[in-house]
Structure formats: structure tokens, C-alpha cells
Fold this protein.
Amino acid sequence: MTQLRFPENFVWGAATAAYQIEGAAGADGRAPSIWDTFSRTPGKVFAGHTGDVACDHYHRYAEDVALMADLGLRAYRFSVAWPRVRPAGTGPDNPPGLDFYDRLTDALLARGIDPIVTLYHWDLPQALADRGGWTVRETAEQFAEYALAVHGRLGDRVRTWTTLNEPWCSAYLGYGNGVHAPGGQDAGAAFRAVHHLLLGHGLAARALRAAGAQVVGITLNLADVQPADPDSPADAAAVRLVDGLHNRIFLGPLTGAGYPDDVLAHLSRLVEPDFLRDGDEKLIAAPLDLLGVNYYSPTYVAGRAGGAGSSAYPGSAGSVEFLPPGGPVTEMGWLIEPAGLTRLLERVGADHPGLPIMITENGAAFPDDRTDELGRVADDDRVRYLDGHLRAAHDALARGVDLRGYLVWSLLDNFEWAEGYRKRFGIVHVDYPTQRRTPKRSARWYQEVISRNGL
Ligand code: FCB
């Protein structure tokens, strides 16, 4: 019996990213990205894992699209690898690289699956990284050129365009604490990267719209930041700082309000903001048709003199303590709290009325060490996680949030960045030695949710 129904036209889908699944790292003219370099650098990725083969999706996309159709997906969010399309980062285009996304798009449409294209999911061409990557303005300008090249090929069939995935990770993990490629460890560089990523978004969004793109958006991993003690003014100050560094530094400029004063004051203590040019905030504030929100876990903080802070939040040491999870966690160690998703969606909905939202990622890694009598991974913990978060999303809908869809992370087990292949997020199991795909129990559960349009 259906207990919770979702709106008609609610978009049900799944998400992946190029470097995490495609493999074929040297095929058809693709050049290295920062993730190829990073994963080949000893000590950066678990057990020296790389994306060289990954799920070999580049060669198996037809089988994967058939799997999506079998599950009843209405939409599929994939990313385009910049170094396949423009191996040098700049022009000229590499037609065989574009051909792949052309084939994939056609295969999806032939099955009635709406392609949602993400233009940047962290795989910056190494050639651009060698010239400064996101710390320099040229990368933002080149990103807009590359976006146009992809639109030129797919724009007649792809309706929904996402510029960046989680610029917070690209900037703070890529340039601030070195956990992600390219591995920089410098607060100033992290803020430069934030700005040039946002600028790249703005330039690309304008260019895409001028070229006729219908729906243009960006995906942020917004944080639901909560105080350890709701009555403590020190904790409230910690929430404000972390919220500023994680959420408002992006949402402000993107929605036309510019960088918040408190965030500018904070970053100016860590870097000379000479990279902010007059007119940039205007460029960043290109109209948005859709905000993608990725949510996995809430963030609890306390305000404490001498607090350890977090290397992922430049300038947080000395005043902020990040709390360890106070409840059940996934295999990533991430606290499971579906209510955080409701709070986050309500907050974004209230702060930015008129901006449609889509959950562009939500899911969980679990050990997946049980199989049932049918030989499927019996991932009941993942089913519980997804069920809880869909109920939380429904709560937000019931409270009036303009939520358009839900994309599970991820379709397939894949290369989980610094964690390599040891963390499995897929609703479909991938046996890496044979590349055999087997839907887990969660995939069959999700198939039913989609077919009933509810829980
Ligand atoms: C997000 C990333 C995605 C995946 C999930 C688990 O931060 O966008 O690629 O790794 O986390």
C-alpha cells in the first residue's frame, strides 16, 4: 500500500560522475586530469587505486543504460570529462570524446531517460592545473568555452545543464587540505579557487543560456549546520562561521546577494582578496533555473576557544570544534540523520523563494557483506537509509518546498575518490574483476518506489 505519494512529474533518477565510472583513461584522445595525476601519486588514494578502468562504463554504457531502463529511472545525471572533450583544457575539441557523450545521450533518450549533464565533476585537465588550475582566472574563462563546446554537440537533445558539482569540495579539499586533487594545502588558494569556480559557473551559465540551454543550474553539497547546544551563543557563532564558509559563500553570489560581509571579513584575514574584480559578483549571479542539492549528513559544531576546527574549513581552528557523530553512521563514518535533509531543504526554500530544487545526490556506503538466496547484495541498511531520506524529502515537500526530484548516489559501485574502490555507494553491485553488474536489494526497492511514485 502506498503511504506517501510524490508529486506527479517528480523526477526519479540516479547519478554518477565521469572519473568514478568511465575508465578508458587513455582512450580516444583523452588526456590526464588532476585525478589521474593525484591517484597515481603514492599515498593519496587508498591502496593506489585509480580510475584507469573503474566500471569501464565508457565501453559498457549500453548495458548500463539498459539497466537504468530496467529499474525505471526517469533521469540520469552523468558528468562530462573535460579532458575527453578538450584534452589540453583549451581548444580544439577532441571529436571522439564528444562522440561518446553523443552515443550515451542517444541511448538514454531511446529508453525515455532524461539526461542531466554535469559539466564539471572534479576532473580538471592536467594541462590547466599546470597553469594554476582554479586558482587562476583563465580556468574560469576556459570552463565557459568548454561548456559551449559540449552544448554545441548535445544541446539539441539535453535540456538540463549543471555547471559544477560541489565547488566546496573542489576548492577546500582540492586546494585547502589536500585530501582531493590537485592536493593543494593553502587557505588562500582555496578561496581563490572558490571565486574562480563561481566565476566559471557564471560565465558558463550565461554562455549556455545564450546558446539556447533550457534549464541551467549548479549542484552544491550544502551543509545542515547545527549547534551542539541550541542555547549557546558561542555555538551559534560557530554555526555562523561554518555556514558562511560552506553555504553562504556560494549561495550569496549565486543568488545575486554577493559575498556576505562576515565571510569576506573572515577570508580577508587569510588571503589578500585581490582576485575579486569589480563586476565579478554580477557575472556569478547569472539566472538559475534549478539548484541541485547533495545531502549525506548534517554537521554539528560547538564554539570553543582553542577548538581544533577542521582543515576543510580554513580559519576554523581556534574557535570551532566539529563534533563526532552522535548516532548511527554509514561506512564513511557519516552520521545518518534524515531530518537534516528536511531542515536543509526548508532553509534553502525559505531563503531563496522561486528557486526550484532537486536532490542531485543522496545515498550511502555500507559494507555490503551479505547476500540473499537470489545472490543479490542484501543491503537492508542502504534501503533504510534511502527510505528515511525519501521520507525526509517528502516532509519538505509537505512543508511547501519546491522540490522537483531525487537522484540516488549512485547507480553503480564506483571509484570513491580518496577512498578508492573500498567504499561502495551503488544500488547496483559491480564485481570489478569481471565488471559484472548485479542489482542489489536496494535497486529493486528503488524500482518499486519509482513505479508507485511513492513509499
Ligand atoms: C559527493 C560527490 C560524489 C560522491 C559522493 C559520495 O561528494 O559528489 O562524487 O563521491 O560524494
